[in-house]
């Protein structure tokens, strides 16, 4: 397999259009945090930002064969995020204005159950991969995830620089993302696990 990490965004997207999941994983890895930060600025809400960013990547993957990106991929995805944020708030406003009769949908309940099962499976995979990390990296990761400590607090507690903490967390999260992609071979679990892998690095700084 070619070293796709050296490919440009546009070259990767051409591969994605043909169904290359690894190429999509690389674009996801390059732009997830950037899009999440941008969405946070536009929405002012961590949850709304997470929703908009996930919806954006899901739409990109689901419509990969039909999407023709004529400008740069970076320009396209920023514009797409802006429209996604607008659509998100429009949908939220409509939901508030329209009275919807509540009902029980067996299919929806089944889907929720499958999501819960898959989330537990991903959490188990992440826990296993964390155990394989070098001791220093593992300790920093656990302080961030399990103890909820931000980067400054971790650096102070361990008497190391904040940049060292960031570097260790970035490497740890990259290892986990690669493990998830290799295990599942598709993007749905990666999108499902994204709040676990990304949220605290972006917001707890």
TrEMBL record:
Keyword set includes Cytoplasm: no
UniProt xrefs under Pfam families: Sigma70_r2, Sigma70_r4_2
InterPro entries attached to this UniProt entry: RNA_pol_sigma-70-like (IPR039425), RNA_pol_sigma-70_dom (IPR014284), RNA_pol_sigma70_r2 (IPR007627), RNA_pol_sigma70_r4_t2 (IPR013249), RNA_pol_sigma_r2 (IPR013325), RNA_pol_sigma_r3/r4-like (IPR013324), WH-like_DNA-bd_sf (IPR036388)
Keywords: Membrane, Sigma factor, Transcription, Transcription regulation, Transmembrane, Transmembrane helix
Source taxon at top rank: Bacteria
UniProt-recorded Gene Ontology molecular function terms: DNA binding; sigma factor activity
Annotated RNA polymerase sigma factor 70 region 4 type domain residues: 128-176
Domain RNA polymerase sigma-70 region: 27-91
Gene Ontology biological process terms in this record: DNA-templated transcription initiation
Protein name (database record): RNA polymerase sigma-70 factor (ECF subfamily)
